[in-house]
Amino acid sequence: MFDINKYLAHANRHLLGGVGQLSELPHWSPKQAHRLAAKEGIELEEAHWRVIYRLRERFDAEGPEWTARRLTRELAEDFAAAGGRRHLYQLFPHGPLAQGCKIAGLPLPQGTFNRSFGSAH
Predict the structure, then answer these.
(1) CA-to-CA distance for 88 and 37, rounded, in angstroms?
(2) 3-class DSSP state for residue 28?
(3) CA 53 – CA 44 distance, rounded (Å)
(4) Is residue 113 part of a domain?
(5) Averaged in consecutive runs of 10 residues, what is the pLDDT profile of the chain (121 residues)?
(6) What is the pTM of this model?
């Protein structure tokens, strides 16, 4: 399991804030998620929370080495019963990774801004 405390102590953590992500993980809370979601035009419901907490679990397990390709595939499998990728994009229209990680207070996985890996940019 990846140790978030070690990650926070990493010298390059200040580089994470470039596209609106929180630059330090301890600043995230469900209340903060509601504020971030409101800025994105999303009203968080139970389905959103399942994705948000799944993203946080994956980051906890993999740390900053996570990749968009693998995470996109895993999320689609995890939420296949609800509709897979289509369901994820209904919840997070600007990309389940780009928008989901932003609301979850996480840095973006490597490759997120590739159109096929979870970003609408």
Answers:
(1) 15
(2) coil
(3) 12
(4) yes
(5) 54 44 66 95 97 94 86 95 96 94 91 58 47
(6) 0.73
